[in-house]
């Protein structure tokens, strides 16, 4: 821990907030980085009471804090990569540039999954789930809390992402998530016709759109996590095609997608012919965000 006076930190905070405004970023981000990298809490920051303290403990010295902040301003590095943590549901997940920063809308995917289990006769509470493209492990860990007696298979093609996911599972003392490296269902051969649900937030951005995303995303997040091929649907197509071989009758198929893809995803599911009760579910921002379907004979 490094010690700095409240006055000195207050000066730094003031300058950093001005720099944020000049760079068209929210000045609140300064407070988020301070909360992550010091002992100051939100109330302390809001009331400004930290400035009266003689000693404040920082995880990094003030020069390093400033260097990180300059990376945010100049290089548009996402704050979560600078601090190494991302709040998500009830967790403080570790993140690195090897994984997508888990998004708030994906928090809802877990709630949609919970609701979806009420419409199948399968015992999903004790079943085997697959989170395909687990990244930081966010969804798998969210499911493991929601279904404490279930087994969750978390798959990713990126070894580096899986290392982050494993670290998160260890941090949360979660030993019910099993990690597999490989493409989609490839490492889950032993689970043919055994899964009660597959959930995924796959890469779904059309390749041509990826470079046009905000710099935080296009320059810093892994393209492997973003790029869904020419129309953005390459990964979803594979998940539609392969899941019926792995789901039990009545099993859940639940996938996140981007605005504008719902019609095409419904068509893919219908054309495949092995799904029933196909639904599109909106997120809190009123976007058609999730596609849900069931394999036959269980609903
Ligand atoms: C949009 S990210 C989602 C990460 C995490 N589930 C989340 O919601 O924050 C997509 C993930 O899919 C992984 N991925 C890409 N292609 C894959 C493939 N063929 N098989 C398995 N995972 C893949 C990427 O490495 C990335 O971690």
Question: What does this protein structure show overall?
Answer:
With 299 residues, this protein is of the alpha/beta class. It has two domains: 2-75, no CATH class; 87-294, Vaccinia Virus protein VP39 (Rossmann fold). It contains eleven helices and eleven strands.
Which helices and strands appear, and what pairs or packs with what?
Elements: E1 2-4, H1 6-22, H2 28-37, H3 42-47, E2 56-58, H4 62-75, H5 79-83, E3 85-88, E4 91-94, H6 104-116, E5 128-132, H7 138-146, E6 151-156, H8 159-171, E7 177-181, E8 195-200, H9 215-218, H10 234-242, E9 247-256, H11 262-272, E10 276-282, E11 288-294
Parallel strand pairs: 5-6, 5-8, 6-7, 8-9
Antiparallel strand pairs: 1-2, 3-4, 9-11, 10-11
Helix pairs in contact: 1-2, 1-4, 6-7, 10-11
Bound molecules: S-adenosylmethionine (SAM).
Residues 99-100, 102, 106, 132-136, 138-139, 155-158, 161, 183-184, 201-203, 224-225 line the site of S-adenosylmethionine.
């Amino acid at each position: 821990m490094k010690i700095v006076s409240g006055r000195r930190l207050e000066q730094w905070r003031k300058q950093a907030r001005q720099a944020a405004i000049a760079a068209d970023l929210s000045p609140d981000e300064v407070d988020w980085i301070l909360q992550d990298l010091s002992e100051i809490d939100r109330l302390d920051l809001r009331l400004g009471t930290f400035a009266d303290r003689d000693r404040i403990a920082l995880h990094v010295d003030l020069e390093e804090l400033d260097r990180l902040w300059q990376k945010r301003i100049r290089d548009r590095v996402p704050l979560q990569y600078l601090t190494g943590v991302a709040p998500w549901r009830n967790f403080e997940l570790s993140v690195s540039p090897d994984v997508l920063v888990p998004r708030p809308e994906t928090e809802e995917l877990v709630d949609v999954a919970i609701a979806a289990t009420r419409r199948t006769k399968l015992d999903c509470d004790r079943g085997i789930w697959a989170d395909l493209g687990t990244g930081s492990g966010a969804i798998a860990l969210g499911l493991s809390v929601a279904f404490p007696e279930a087994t969750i298979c978390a798959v990713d093609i990126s070894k580096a992402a899986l290392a982050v996911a494993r670290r998160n599972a260890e941090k949360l003392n979660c030993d019910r998530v099993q990690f597999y490296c490989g493409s989609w269902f490839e490492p889950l051969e032993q689970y043919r016709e055994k899964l009660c649900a597959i959930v995924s937030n796959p890469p779904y951005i059309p390749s041509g759109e990826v470079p046009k995303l905000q710099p935080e995303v296009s320059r810093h997040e892994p393209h492997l996590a973003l790029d869904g091929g020419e129309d953005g649907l390459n990964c979803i197509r594979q998940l539609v095609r392969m899941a019926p071989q792995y789901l039990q009758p009545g099993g859940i198929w639940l996938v996140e997608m981007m605005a504008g893809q719902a019609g095409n995803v419904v068509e893919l599911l219908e054309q495949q012919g092995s799904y029933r009760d196909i639904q599109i579910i909106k997120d809190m921002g009123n976007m058609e965000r999730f596609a849900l379907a069931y394999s036959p004979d269980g609903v």
